[in-house]
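Q: Structure tokens for this one, please.
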Amino acid sequence: MRFDNFYAFLEGLAPRELSASWDNDGVMCIADKDLDVKRVLVALDPTSEAIRYAADGGYDVLLTHHPMIFKGLKSLSGADTVSARTISALTRGVSVVSLHTRLDAAEGGVNDALMATIGVKVTGTFGDGEMPTLGRLGELDGEVDSKELASKVRDALGCGHVRVTGKGKVRRIAVVGGDGKDLILPAIKAGADVLITGDAGYNTCEAAAEDGFIIIEAGHFHTEAPVCRFLAEKIREIGLEAETFNTCPSMYV
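A: Here is the predicted structure, written as tokens:
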């Protein structure tokens, strides 16, 4: 499949109009403008390790959630991490595409994959003024204790442990993969009892708990990584080879 046709397929999954105005996502670099895409490696982050794995494994495209190039590059000297990764991808024949906030908001994207992984059916969306459908809402069959829900989230995501701020019974759930602190108030306004996210910060969580709202933080990586399986499955459906490659950059000791 020609690269431009492959990218059009990705645009269908996660349209550019869903991206935040401040974001830089899409095509990061193309190693060959006439590229025939046959094999795709899907990862959360465009790390040097992921680029090497893609090159060594004969993958044509590295598809990531987090952008390889977020701010404008001023040079390709290899003196900084971003330019070094870009040089490595280009010289080793790996084209890189990153779908960031558009994949958060897209149907079947980061937040749908997160909700599916924890076993809760999506009942609606919520967000802020710029991205009104970024987060997902769901509802449990009945009320459960926040600690019980936290244990379920921990086990479903395989993250070792989670941090729970606030306590009480919950039923209405909001999820935002990654950094969800800016969507705490929209989640509350949407009628949620609890927000499941990656990171939200001590002070914001403490203030929300004082108002009776519960936040479960399961780690940025673990709340976003499930989407990689979704992307790989979609790519296989169009006849291309796809594999996921994820290594969490953090560890709990």
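A few notes: DSSP finds ten helices and eleven strands in the chain. The CA atoms of residues 100 and 194 lie 24 Å apart.
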